[in-house]
Structures are given as structure tokens and as C-alpha cells.
Amino acid sequence: MNTENRRVPLPTRIAALLLLGALALPAHAGVALPKADHWLRLTPENSVVGNFPAQKAPILTVKSGATVRIDGGGGNRWGEEEPFAWLKANGVTVNAEEAEAIREIDAVVKKTERYADIKTGHLLVGPIAIEGAMPGDTIEVRVLKVTPRIPYGTVSQRPGRGGIPDDVKEPHTVVVTFDGKRRSGHFGDGIEVPLGPFQGVMGLLPAASEGANRRSGPPGLFGGNLDCKELVDGTSLYLPVFHPGGLFFTGDSHAAQGDGEVTVNAIETANTSVLQFILHKGRLLSAPRAESATHFMAFGLDPDLDNAMQMAIRETNALLADTYGLDFARAFALSSIAVDFRVTQVVDETKGIHSMIPKSLFTKARLAPFWAADPKRR
User: Are strands 60-62 and 123-130 parallel, antiparallel or unpaired?
Assistant: First the structure.
């Protein structure tokens, strides 16, 4: 279903989201969740570890416009030791609902089928198929709400990993406990970290050229492990479709992250997400794009950070051309004087840069919907 003429401006959608939250029943950590058309619980059948398996049948098929609640997992060394002993040793207390979620996550990690002999990696839920999606289309993923379902997260580092791999001499794990009312994480030593929950992985099934069991670690043109901390409540992520149904996966639950994600970890936790899927027919993006109430975002992805920066600049120029009709010279000039380019992450093999384009720059209406890339330019 083409929704080009039905699109509601993002600030209006955010206002509607607040109303939905006020009408919803209480959820984890005292946070209200919007009502959803479907609810995907965390089970071995709904999950996969460390890759995007092309052979896995959809666990749910939805119509364009449907909302889905997804209970995710993460936040511990699951499957290696009895989880409650580990929590007690780190001073974490849980209530009955949180304990149930922890048991569920631990069981899922131990029982979920591995594909392509992948033993570790992101715990993902999916795939979700969107009716009518075909290669050449774009799927918009609207993030209605993301909230932790357990009261803590972990931040780890180990030798040979992260932004300074040679400087890490031994493994370390820092446990961060959450104050749901204050929306903050207690880091210790008088340090409180504001929480901004989001899903590190949101992506469609990668193109067939990337293999049948493409690892979930590096992000790509399909999205995936973007680790972009901007993708919080009220944002939209736009992804190009490579397979019938699109086949959406999500996981890698984060409670907060700095640009760069320099240890390889954000605050790793387990989130519940409420997402809406909108199908836009007949336009293929060359890379992911995103939108918040205040900014447009374009992504650059490459193992070399300089190349990722160049891709981000080109994608930003293309976005400005598609949406506001700017020619190369004017788009490039505007990118230089008014657009911020941020290091998304430097630790996922494929590194990321994302641009932040303020909507306040523009006093004229868009020439085209944000997602509608010009196919003649592709």
C-alpha cells in the first residue's frame, strides 16, 4: 500500500504517540507502552543469534501501518552461568516481573537455533514480513516506544576489541542499574547517565549477494547494526527492500550510548519495543535514512572511516537533492555550513557516520517525501 498521500508529519505523530501512551496499560519500569496490533514474545522460535538467516520463515506477516510490540533480550552473559547468582554478585535486585523476563532471556539464549555455526552475537527477533513489500520499495520503521524490561545493563570491554584495542589488557564489565522514574543509569562514583533506549539492530534481510547467513555485527545498506543513538522514540528509519516481504529483524537492546560506542558496547540491556511498519512502494533508497521531529539523517558505512565520511556526505547531498531540489553545488555548500556529521560507531568492522540535517533550515515545503529518492539518479 502506497501511503505517500496519507503521511502524517512527524511532530503530529509524536503528539499522537503521547496520547497513545497515556491510554495504554502500565509496562516495564513503570513506562506506558502504546497499544499494538501484534505482540511478539521472546521465544526460541522467534529468535536468532548473530546472523540474518535467509532460510528462516517469517514469524509474523503484517499489513502496512500495523504496529508490533517486540519483547527483546540481552544485557548479560547469557547461557554461561546461572543469571541470578551473577546479578546478586553485582548488587542488582529485581522484582518478580523482571525476574520472569531474565529467566525468559536466559532460556531463549540456551535454546535458540544457531545458523551457519554462529555461536555468539546479537540476540535478534525476526523476521517480520510486510505484505506487498518487494525489491525496489522502501519500508519505514516508526519507533513508537522503546523501554528496558530489566533494571540494569552492562558495559564490557576485552583485549583486541574496541576503539583502542591494544590498550585493553584484560576483560572488564561495568554494571549500570536503572532508575526508571528519573530515566537515568547509576554508573557509580556519583555519576548518573541519562537513558535513551534504542535498538542497536534494526534491519531488513540483506541482499542475496551478502550470503544466506550474513553476520549481524557489521551494518550495511539494509540497516542492521547501525548503533545510531538517535533512533529513539518518535524517529523513523527508512530501509531499502531486497527481498519479498522485506523481512525485518531487531535486537541489540541499548539503554544509552555515546557516539562512537568505543568499547564495542553501549549500556547493553533487554528492551521492549513498539514499532510501526509503513510500506512505500516503488522507490529504492541507496542506503538507510532516518528522520526525527527536528532532523533528517543520512548514513555512510565503510570499514574505512574516511570512506564512511565520504559516503555520508554524498548521501546527505542526495537527500537534499531528492527532498528540496538542491543541485550539487548548493547541497554540498549547505552540508558544509549547517549539517553536523557524527561518528555513529567505530567498532562494528563496518564503521558509521551519520549526518544531522536540521529541519529548521527549510522555510519551503518539501518537493518530495523524505523517503522518495529519485530513481533517475540511482
Answer: parallel
